[in-house]
Design a protein that fits this description.
328 residues; alpha+beta; ten-stranded antiparallel β-sheet; four-stranded parallel β-sheet; 30% helix; globular
Length: 328
Amino acid sequence: MRAILVVNPQATSTTAGGRDVLAHALASQVKLDVVETDYRGHAMAVARSAARDGIDLVVAHGGDGTVNEVVNGLLADAATSGAPPQAGGAATGTSARGWGDPTRIGRIPALGVVPGGSANVFARALGISSDPVEATHQLLHALENDRSRRVGLGLADGHWFTFNAGLGWDADVVGRVAKRRGKQTTAGLYLRAAVRSYFRPPLGRPALTIRVPGEEPTEALTAFVSNTDPWSYLGERPIHLNPGCSFETGLGLFALNGLGLPTVFKHVRRALATKSNQNGRRLVRHDDLPMIRIDAAEPVNFQVDGDLVGQRNRVEFFSVPDALTVIV
């Protein structure tokens, strides 16, 4: 088996010693090359080359951003090899799942993950330990026993995402955090960014129009899209927005059409306190969706897997089943 280990040395809990231990352990089972990233997009470029060269396995050692780059690199050619249904499908009820047929993606390397970030949402959702040493043991054991699983992914405006994406408030928070964080990212930093973005949204609060299959369009002010549960973590506490969402189902939507303090406090408290489904007159929630289209009256911030992509007036989200093989 030929493998590439992609290491982000700037991730929160990656160290040179940990990298060497991981590389040595992997090299005992596979023919290994090690690449340390040194610029944004480097992991994506390495993974794309690995897919084109027929490499069997790419292991991402870093945070969720590193994993996202590797996933987008592995699937870079697949994302342009076929066109999803047109946006009208969301209004007419046309399914997008046919576009996500794994046979249309073709053969790509399997993915291995050894967490090295602060949240590690994707890895934790797969049951991978947040401790890099323990995660290495899990990966080696899975390789020895030829154990893997297929996972579904989300695709939004050409960007693959593993656990969440969003427009509005959460993307504002991501953008604010990105400007302030160094190597360490804490729950307190996210909380402060959330409060500041709530009271001083950088782009205001343009109205969002949400279209999903079989439903009339609805209005919202912020929208959270999930590919699994939890949506994310606040420190060690999981945030549950669509508890029924998983890598085997379609996308989850959690949108608010009002952002008054009582509404926000109620839904944040429930998201942190319980795994049960939420409801409320200000809440627009759907589960297991094949596609979602969101139009914004003015440009709003757009994020995938905790990284700010930019500003958009429209984004179409697609669920792509069985898109990726993960060694776990």
